[in-house]
Amino acid sequence: MKRMTRYWLRATALLAYCLLLWAAPVGAQADSLPVCPGGTVVETAPLPHGTAQKVTCPGTVREVYDHYRAAMQAAGYHLVVEAIEQERGGLAGTGANGGSISVTVSTADKGTSVVVDHTP
User: Fold this and answer.
1) Which of 1, 43, 114, 115 has the fewest CB atoms found within 10 Å of its own CB?
2) Contact assessment for residue 40 and residue 55, using Cβ atoms and an 8 Å cutoff
3) Superkingdom of this entry's organism (predicted)?
4) Residue 99 has pLDDT above 70, yes or no
């Protein structure tokens, strides 16, 4: 059962990645999501059609996942992929203007690690 869940989560992450590659930079969606409360941006990197941001957050995977889920909805993204487990979770959404965003949440040594990939 655990193995099947791992494969499902990997397939979800692959789908989110494909959505990001497929999405064209059109219009203007929210440039970024608000960082989780008490979170720290560790790294920001440019992508061919957007940006990637790595954040470290206090709290459980569920708390951080819920924060980013609400932030995505508030920013106007339609959630197309949602997956949550005890140690990891993932979200992917598309904007009304064609932009896309994916959020990967996982446990880390010093809290919870988040990677946000955004294509405007």
Assistant:
1) 1
2) yes
3) Bacteria
4) yes
